Q: What sequence folds into this?
């Protein structure tokens, strides 16, 4: 029995456990089912919402696409269907499937933004439409675009209208670029709300009004470019708050007032360009705080006062351009500290005093322009240290003393201009070392001595101007080596001797001016080789002999002046080949023979002066072809015969002087056609004067 009891007792737990397990399993299944229903009811609306959002984004972009021109629509052929994340060109998406970035820069898009519903792009982070042909205004609903957007670039398009104040709502923006469009009106003060902005490009528009004080709230800015607009008023002092700024471009505007002292707080600046405005007042000494500055452009303003000594603290500077202002006083010696300087432009100011010896410490200089000032004293010999110099402009000052021999050490020079000073002494022979020189201007000084033979070593020269000095001696034959020369000015000196035959080797010459010297001998026939010559001035010398027949080969000539010499013989008929001639001066010589009939071929002539010679024969009737003539001087010759009837065809004439000849016959009635005539000299001839009675 005990065993039996035991057996009955052991079965009881099994009977109890079995229903409990069943109940538990039923409860578990119910819970799982309930969880599934709950999850399904919760997840279905979210998925549905995302799908609706994606559909809306696709519709928004497709609607915009259909508003663009046909070529653009073809370009965006990948934009179709309801999934904008499925291989749509220029579109990328979040992992959730929502549009995150649209990058269509430089795609040739043409159209407007009017049909782009920005509010249907709620998760957009970047929108790049740079460098297309989009036009029209930016829609007012731009403020409804995603508040997450960090990058917005509409630059280099054709947008018009004003910059919408709604942009101020896009407070996540780090880059805003609206440059190179046609935006007008003011910069909206709401731009000050964009506290995360690191880059602001508004350059090359037609913006006007003041730079808003609120610009100073953009403390994260690295790059601020407002150049090439019509902005007026002062630079706001709040700009000093932009301590992270590395680039500040305000050039080519109409800004006025002084440069604020607070500019010196921008200690991160690398590039400061305030040029081409109407800024006045001094350069603030605080500018010396900008120790990271590599470029400082303040040129073409109305700045006054002296260059501050503190400029010498900007030891990182590569480019310093203060030209075309009203700066006075000396060039500070501290400028010698700027050892990294490659370009120094101080020209067109009112600077005075001497060029500091310290200028020779700027061994990295490529360009040094100190021209058009009131600088005095000598050119410092230390200038010879500037071995990298390619351009040296010291012209239009009051410099004195001689050209230092050390100038010959500047073997990288392309352009040397020391003209319009009071330099004395001779041209140093060391100048022959400057084999890369293309331009040499020493004109309008008080230089003396001869032209050094070494000038012929400058075989790269295009332009050589030594005129208006007191140079003596002959023109060196070595000048014939300068085969690249297009301009040669030696006029207004005291040069003597003959014109060297080698002048004919300068076949690239356009302009040859040897006038107002004491040159003797004949005009070399080799001059006929100069087929590119447009100007030939040999007047006011002591040249003799005949005009060479070869002069007729110079068919590009506009201006031929051989007057005030002792030339003899006849005017060569070949002169009729010079069909481009506008000025022909042969007056004040000893020319004889008749005026050639071929003179009538020079139909471009404005000014013909053959006076004060010994010309004989009659005035050729072909002269009537010169319909552009305003001045005709044939006076003081030995001309005979009658005044040709054809003179009346010269209806542009202002000045007609035929006096002091042996002209006969009557004055032709056709002279009455010369209605523009202000001067008519016919005196001292043998003319018969008939007075016709005028009946009232």
A:
């Amino acid at each position: 029995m005990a065993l039996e009891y035991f057996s009955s007792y052991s079965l009881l737990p099994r009977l109890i456990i079995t229903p409990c397990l069943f109940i538990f399993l039923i409860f578990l299944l119910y819970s799982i089912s309930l969880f599934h229903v709950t999850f399904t009811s919760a997840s279905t609306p979210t998925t549905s919402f995302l799908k609706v959002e994606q559909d809306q984004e696709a519709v928004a972009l497709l609607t915009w696409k259909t508003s663009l021109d046909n070529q653009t629509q073809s370009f965006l052929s990948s934009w179709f269907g309801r999934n904008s994340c499925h291989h749509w060109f220029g579109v990328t998406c979040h992992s959730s499937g929502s549009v995150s970035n649209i990058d269509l820069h430089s795609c040739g898009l043409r159209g407007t933004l009017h049909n782009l519903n920005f509010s249907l792009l709620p998760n957009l982070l970047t929108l790049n439409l740079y460098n297309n042909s989009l036009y029209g205004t930016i829609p007012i609903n731009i403020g409804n675009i995603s508040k997450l957007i960090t990058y917005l670039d509409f630059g280099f398009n054709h947008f018009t209208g004003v910059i919408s104040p709604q942009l101020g709502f896009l407070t996540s923006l780090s880059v805003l670029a609206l440059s190179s469009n046609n935006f007008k009106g003011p910069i909206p003060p709401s731009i000050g709300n964009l506290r995360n902005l690191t880059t602001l490009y508004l350059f090359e528009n037609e913006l006007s009004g003041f730079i808003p004080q609120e610009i100073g709230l953009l403390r994260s800015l690295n790059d601020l470019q407002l150049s090439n607009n019509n902005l007026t008023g002062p630079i706001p002092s709040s700009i000093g708050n932009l301590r992270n700024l590395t680039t500040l471009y305000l050039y080519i505007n109409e800004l006025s007032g002084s440069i604020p002292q607070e500019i010196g707080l921008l200690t991160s600046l690398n590039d400061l360009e305030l040029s081409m405005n109407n800024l006045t007042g001094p350069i603030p000494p605080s500018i010396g705080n900008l120790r990271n500055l590599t470029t400082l452009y303040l040129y073409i303003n109305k700045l006054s006062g002296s260059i501050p000594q503190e400029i010498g603290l900007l030891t990182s500077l590569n480019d310093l351009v203060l030209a075309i202002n009203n700066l006075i006083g000396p060039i500070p010696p501290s400028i010698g500290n700027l050892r990294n300087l490659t370009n120094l432009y101080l020209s067109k100011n009112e600077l005075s005093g001497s060029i500091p010896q310290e200028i020779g410490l700027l061994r990295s200089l490529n360009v040094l322009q100190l021209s058009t000032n009131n600088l005095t004293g000598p050119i410092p010999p230390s200038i010879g240290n500037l071995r990298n110099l390619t351009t040296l402009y010291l012209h239009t000052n009051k410099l004195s003393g001689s050209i230092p021999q050390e100038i010959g050490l500047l073997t990288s020079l392309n352009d040397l201009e020391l003209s319009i000073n009071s330099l004395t002494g001779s041209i140093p022979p060391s100048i022959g070392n400057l084999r890369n020189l293309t331009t040499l201007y020493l004109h309008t000084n008080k230089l003396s001595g001869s032209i050094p033979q070494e000038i012929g070593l400058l075989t790269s020269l295009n332009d050589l101007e030594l005129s208006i000095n007191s140079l003596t001696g002959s023109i060196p034959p070595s000048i014939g080596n300068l085969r690249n020369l297009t301009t040669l000015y030696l006029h207004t000196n005291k040069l003597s001797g003959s014109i060297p035959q080698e002048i004919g080797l300068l076949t690239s010459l356009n302009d040859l001016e040897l006038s107002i010297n004491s040159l003797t001998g004949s005009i070399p026939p080799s001059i006929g080789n100069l087929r590119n010559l447009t100007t030939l001035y040999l007047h006011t010398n002591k040249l003799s002999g005949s005009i060479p027949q070869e002069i007729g080969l110079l068919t590009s000539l506009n201006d031929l002046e051989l007057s005030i010499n002792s030339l003899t013989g006849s005017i060569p008929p070949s002169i009729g080949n010079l069909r481009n001639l506008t000025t022909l001066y042969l007056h004040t010589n000893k020319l004889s023979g008749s005026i050639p009939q071929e003179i009538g071929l020079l139909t471009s002539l404005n000014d013909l002066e053959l006076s004060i010679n010994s010309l004989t024969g009659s005035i050729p009737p072909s002269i009537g072809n010169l319909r552009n003539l305003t001045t005709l001087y044939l006076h003081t010759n030995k001309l005979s015969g009658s005044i040709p009837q054809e003179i009346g065809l010269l209806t542009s004439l202002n000045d007609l002087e035929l006096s002091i000849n042996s002209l006969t016959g009557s004055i032709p009635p056709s002279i009455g056609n010369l209605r523009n005539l202000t001067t008519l000299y016919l005196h001292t001839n043998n003319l018969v004067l008939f007075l016709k009675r005028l009946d009232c």
